[in-house]
Amino acid sequence: MLRLRVGCWLLAWGALSCGESSNAGDGTAGGGGTSGEGASGGSAGSANGGAAGGSASGGATGESGGTSEDAPYFQPGSRLKPRVLALDDGVDVLRDVVLDASWHDAELEFDCLFLLDEAGVERCFPRRFLSRGTYADADCTRRVLVDSTVGTCAGSRSPYVALEGPGCAYSGFRVGEELPPSTPLFYSADGSSCQASVQTDATPMYELEAVPAETFVGMQRGPRPRAPGLDAYVREGDDGSWQIMGYFDPVREAACFDSFIEFDPPSQCVPAHASSAWYADSSCQTHIASVQQTSCYAERRTVIFAGKVDVASCPSRRSFELYEIDGTREASPYQVDDTGACVLSTTPPGEVYVQGAAIDASTLPTLETLVVGTGAARALFSGFGGVPYVPIGTGHSGLVDESSEPCQPFRFPDGSLRCVPTSFSAATPAALVYEEASCDGPPLVAWIAKPTCPADPPLPRGVLFVDSTACELAVTELRAVVGESTASTLYARDTSGACQAVNMSSPAPTYLRLGDVLEANTFPDLKPTTRQ
């Protein structure tokens, strides 16, 4: 169970998991409340409720008022168990909040994605799912799994898979016996015709057996008291598991979510929304939003969201407008082109939400960004009234170190999982160059700064060398940055090991001079575990 100390806590990075099958999705498309479609990307809020995503920011930043064990934001059930990172002061943070995949079905032995079944019920389906049906017969009745990743990562093989069907509905299958390599394959592109599929290699194939939807834990969403003035919005499983997904505004009697964007006004609790990209009229005055684009989400849309970015300001200024939904209808959408003219969109006609009355953003609850924990690694949460509700997982892992710098989990060669500051740059050993013609002396590595506003960023604190073959974010070595090179000629070893002059590109990047190797214990330790 998560324990609140002096502050607040946040989610951990969602990339620490094995690969999926070659025809499997990553869980971010078409799920029942699993993928956001907000103004600028996904977030913990958008992933589960549709609030606009972006960089973690918003209202007041401070410490959480909660310090006891009676204020958790998740609870294990009889089947669903949370996968967490345990910080060194006893705080637990869910591992995969970005993809909403922090839960493990201990009975069926797979990690969950929360998707809608054919009856519209949100369920814990296998994280590994198929985007298209493949069959072992010319009538397209014997479904099979074609899996090119079996054995490449520990745990990559799940005893179950999910299949994405029409209308965002998912169904589940049990993985059966392996089929002979000579088994002919077929596929159905439209659900009516069955066509032969060319098999070019000896990729393993397995029989699939359909199982009832009730095989997978069903979920329900609703409010639960947490702080005066704003309830928690909770997803609860039939097995007793639960997790706070956002907020429930008792004034509007609807769920709302942190936008995680530096909006003006900041960090309002935005109702579950449909983002407007078009207009209903040739003067581009009445906002509309696609019904189809939100039909895959478990959360009902209650408002239309229209975000704006003033790119001329430094830093860019973001604002938004909210409107009640005044029903739905068929419409041919209009849009504003690059010249500012209102033109008929190339998007085909479809069912849309239509703009109703404007909503005064100042009437929405104002949220806070809180820091949970007292150890070497701490966590960020979106909260209200000093109480943490929802982990922030956008832009980085949601973890920070003692200096409040964001950090991200990486596996080290000694097997430990540690939080490396995001100010570190990444490189490969092949990128090393030298100032000396003998390729001796302090190594250098090229670095291209990403422009920031109003000033360019400082040099990275260090450089991490990434193991691209690992099944999770892993490093082979980290080195401190001690300065930058001013040499006009640099050298590198070629494939034979000889030291040769490097052809300098124009404009040349900044070359960082690297210092000592940094030991693993330089960085905060994280303990991955599954709570029972």
Provide a brief overview of the structure:
The protein has about 525 residues and is mainly beta.
Describe the overall structure.
- Strands 2, 4, 5, 6, 7, 8, 30, 31, 32, 33, 34, 35 and 43 form a 13-stranded mixed sheet that branches. A nine-stranded mixed sheet has the order 1-9-12-13-16-11-10-14-15, with no helix packed on it.
- It is 1% helix and 42% strand.
- β23 (278-279) and β24 form a beta hairpin.
Number of helices: 1
- The backbone outline, from C-alpha atoms, is globular
Q: What is the oligomeric state here?
A: single chain
Briefly note the structural class of the backbone: mainly beta
What is the average of the pLDDT values? 79
Distance between the termini: 9 Å
Strand residue content: 35-45%
Poorly predicted ranges: 1-61, 64-70
Biggest sheet descriptor: 13 strands, mixed
Q: Find the count of extended strands (DSSP E, 2+ residues).
A: 43
The Rg value, from CA coordinates, equals 25 Å
Helix content: under 10%
Name the features.
532 residues, 13-stranded mixed sheet, 9-stranded mixed sheet, 1 helix, 43 strands, 1% helix
What is the element layout, followed by pairings?
Elements: E1 24-25, H1 44-49, E2 61-63, E3 74-75, E4 80-86, E5 92-94, E6 103-105, E7 110-116, E8 122-126, E9 129-130, E10 134-135, E11 143-146, E12 160-164, E13 170-179, E14 185-187, E15 195-197, E16 205-211, E17 219-227, E18 230-237, E19 242-249, E20 254-258, E21 269-271, E22 273-275, E23 278-279, E24 287-290, E25 303-310, E26 317-331, E27 334-336, E28 342-344, E29 350-359, E30 368-372, E31 377-384, E32 387-391, E33 399-401, E34 406-411, E35 417-421, E36 425-427, E37 444-447, E38 462-466, E39 475-484, E40 491-493, E41 499-501, E42 510-517, E43 525-530
